[in-house]
Amino acid sequence: MYPQKFEDLITAFRHLPGVGVKTAERYAFTALEWDEETLNEFIHALSSIQGGLKNCTICGNLSEGDHCQICADKTRNPHVICVVQSAKDVIAMEKMNTYNGVYHVLHGAINTSKGILPQDLNIESLLDRVDEQTEEIILATNPTVEGETTALYLSKLLEDKQVNVTRIAHGLPMGGHLDYADELTLIKAFEGRKKM
């Protein structure tokens, strides 16, 4: 029905989560209306993430260099580590403007039905980071079955490390995700975290 190049553009937009055929068509028609400068900005932004973004070698967060901005910030407390499932969870936590520790990004959660096992996550480097100076590990995985399973697994692994392991409180709804929560909900959940 459409020319092949336009069909290819629709197909490309359909790769985005939650985007069906109609929305992808709308995006494609919008892209056709862009001036050359806007189109070039979009193309440049997309092409620059390939090779331009990587995972921080310390925490696994998104980074343009070896270390993310948070790990490179000398004013943060490196002895308090907040463990999250994804890089977008780091952004959600940072919106609180109350946490001054560092993060560790797991890149997922244990989900045996999808074949995601502990060895598929960024767990080994977390264990390597924990030493006698580590004051607290805050488990801030999503309050879902997978997030709870992952938090429980990590708390068991960390039992021998002589570190205070806490879990954020359930001010967040079960089945919810950190990146959808507002700042106040996150603050309350963070303040009400408990020892595991």
From TrEMBL:
Residue spans, zinc finger C4-type: 56-71
Keyword Zinc-finger: yes
Location of the Toprim domain: 79-173
Pfam families in the cross-refs: RecR_C, RecR_HhH, RecR_ZnF, Toprim_4
Highest taxon, organism lineage: Bacteria
Keyword tags: DNA damage, DNA recombination, DNA repair, Metal-binding, Zinc, Zinc-finger
Presence of keyword Transmembrane helix: no
Function: May play a role in DNA repair. It seems to be involved in an RecBC-independent recombinational process of DNA repair. It may act with RecF and RecO.
Protein family (similarity comment): Belongs to the RecR family.
Name of protein: Recombination protein RecR
Biological source species: Amedibacillus dolichus
